[in-house]
Design a protein that fits this description.
This protein is an alpha/beta fold. The chain contains ten helices and ten strands. The chain has a six-stranded mixed beta sheet with strand order 6-7-8-3-9-10, with helices on both faces. Strands 2-1-4-5 form a four-stranded antiparallel beta sheet, with helices on one face. Helix 3 packs parallel to helix 6 and helix 5 packs across helix 6. It is globular, with a radius of gyration of 19 Å.
């Protein structure tokens, strides 16, 4: 297996604040890569650079060998990188089903004019995508809620809806920004099973997360950022025992990453 997503030498500053310092990492096919670190360590900035929200000051991002820097977020999504956000971004007044189908929009081939005219081709294509969207909702655990307003869902289910919408883009790499935030222990177990199933289906998952129990259970490798720089990389067991990680992320005297 080769690298699906590769980041080399990424640097990004905002005025005098250095958010990323020469960060390099890669994620392989059927791999879950977790990115951890203290608040303000550059994790979300990294995802924003990968997805084209910010342009790096130096370095590059490649998806299956194709350079992504310079493309818009929409173009990067079309290429095969989809994401969720630290702060949930749903169309809250639309239905659960409509939110997922919005994630499919760039895959519609009928064209705007044919959609507006409700041509047979566009109706057939929409019906196919609706079937797929319903299947994605079932996959993430939201079957039966298709007609509910997105804003009516509990917080944890809104996070699952965001994952379903990202999956609707048929990505090669899925980027999750703190997917377990606000979830209770039972909901986190459900999320663990979902992430494992996505990996088994061949998806590359890159996950920013503070819930170490989730990282321990699903991550194949872990990258640790601190002050915008990568300070460690390895298995969870290796990261957990790394003195620099313990000091930077957990505080001196901490014995493990379980807290």
């Amino acid at each position: 297996m080769g690298a699906v997503l590769q980041v080399r030498g990424l640097s990004k500053s905002f005025g005098g604040i250095v958010a990323l310092r020469d960060v390099s990492l890669h994620a392989e096919e059927k791999e879950v890569l977790a990115i951890i670190g203290p608040n303000g360590s550059g994790k979300t900035t990294l995802l924003n650079v990968i997805t084209g929200v910010y342009r790096p000051d130096a370095g590059g991002v490649w998806l299956n060998g194709e350079q992504l820097v310079g493309l818009t977020p929409a173009q990067i999504c079309i290429k095969g990188v989809a994401r969720t956000f630290q702060n949930i971004r749903l169309f809250k007044r639309l239905t659960v089903l409509d939110n997922v189908m919005i994630g499919q929009h760039h895959r519609f081939g009928a064209g705007l004019a044919r959609v507006l005219l409700a041509s047979r081709a566009s109706r057939g294509e929409e019906a196919e995508f609706e079937v797929e969207a319903r299947a994605l909702l079932a996959k993430v655990g939201l079957a039966g809620l298709e007609d509910a307003a997105a804003q009516s869902l509990p917080y944890a289910k809104q996070r699952l809806l965001e994952i379903a919408r990202a999956l609707a883009a048929a990505p090669k790499a899925l980027l999750l920004d703190e997917p377990a935030a606000g979830m209770n222990s039972e909901e986190i177990v459900h999320l663990e099973a979902l992430v494992r199933s996505l990996r088994e289906e061949g998806l590359t998952v890159i996950m920013i997360e503070h819930v170490m129990d989730l990282v321990r259970e699903v991550a194949d490798r872990v990258v640790v950022l601190n002050y915008g720089a990568k300070i460690a990389e390895g298995s969870f067991a290796e990261i957990e025992a790394d003195p620099e990680v313990i000091e930077a992320y957990l505080g001196k005297g901490a014995g493990s990453c379980s807290a």
